[in-house]
Write a structure and sequence with these properties.
By secondary structure, this protein is of the alpha/beta class. About 35% of the residues lie in helices and about 20% in strands.
Length: about 290
């Protein structure tokens, strides 16, 4: 029997990975009168979605995702939350028409960086006739703003570290590797790789404890969008856990890209940063690529 196709396909789907962002998006969508449908990625999303229409689905099951779109009248989708494990090519189950739209699926999975994989995912979803929207379009208040978010501001040493880490983060992003870098004393000491921001900060803390990083100079974490990144997915994000790991690594604060990054738990984050003498600030780095 053919699946029923609702005449109006405009319902919002949230493809939910890990972390708190999917819940923020779902709550915000509901608050503005929407009834979001949650596609929780198995082994990634740890949220209890019992209060929402939802189903659990594997990350590579694009055929199942497309069927859910048609079954529930989905016309828009948000990709939100982190994904720790990228699908292997053998895990991909997609309709033939979608594979025709993205003929380099296997090559992208084998050789592409995270941004390349995200762009492939977007194209597979758009092949189903569903429009991708950014999390910041649903929850604009999450976007970082320019300047300090709390009472603590970067000093001269921190400004030099911000400049060094920003240049490194942009160079790293051009290679489609990561979004973050840490600089201490004007020297880049860590770049974000497959371990993510939390893993990088743990590495900085270990280097500091081992005496490989100065105990006197504090340093800064910077997170920026990758050059050419599709702003509808995987915007840099920080939250309370990021702040706490930055403090454990001995850093003076965090700088994120204003207007192109997400600040989760902003009230609690700013209060804790102020209480511990750390800064959180939004910056506008110099970019040469065309901003999307």
């Amino acid at each position: 029997m053919a699946e029923s196709r609702p005449e109006l396909r405009d319902r919002l789907a949230i493809i939910a990975g890990g972390g708190m962002l999917p819940r923020y998006v779902a709550d915000a969508a509901r608050a503005r009168g929407e009834s979001p449908y949650i596609l929780a990625l198995s082994n990634e999303s740890g949220e209890d979605w019992s209060g929402f229409d939802h189903e659990i689905i594997s990350i590579g099951n694009y055929a199942g995702i497309g069927a859910a779109f048609r079954r529930h009248g989905i016309g828009r989708a948000v990709l939100s939350g982190w994904v720790r494990r990228r699908p292997e090519w053998r895990d991909i189950h997609a309709p033939f028409k979608a594979l025709l739209a993205v003929p380099a699926v296997v090559r992208t999975l084998l050789r592409g960086g995270d941004d390349a994989v995200l762009k492939m995912v977007i194209r597979l979803i758009e092949a189903e006739g569903v429009r991708i929207v950014g999390a910041h379009e649903i929850v604009p208040d999450l976007l970082g703003t320019e300047g300090p978010l709390g009472v603590v501001t970067p000093d001269t040493a921190a400004e030099a570290d911000i400049a060094a880490a920003s240049a490194a983060a942009l160079a790293l992003g051009r290679l489609d590797v990561g979004q973050g870098a840490v600089a201490v004393g004007g020297r880049v000491v860590a770049l974000e790789g497959a371990e993510g921001t939390d893993g990088m900060l743990e590495r900085v803390a270990a280097l500091r404890a081992a005496g490989r990083i100065s105990q006197r100079r504090r340093g800064v974490l910077v997170k920026l969008c990758k050059p050419g990144q599709d702003l509808r997915a995987d915007l840099p994000a920080i939250g309370l856990e990021t702040l706490r790991r930055a403090e454990a690594a001995g850093l003076a604060g965090i700088a994120v890209e204003a207007g192109r990054s997400l600040v989760l738990e902003r009230g609690a984050l700013v209060a804790e940063a102020d209480a511990h003498g750390l800064f959180v600030t939004g910056i506008v780095p110099e970019r040469t690529e065309i901003v999307q």
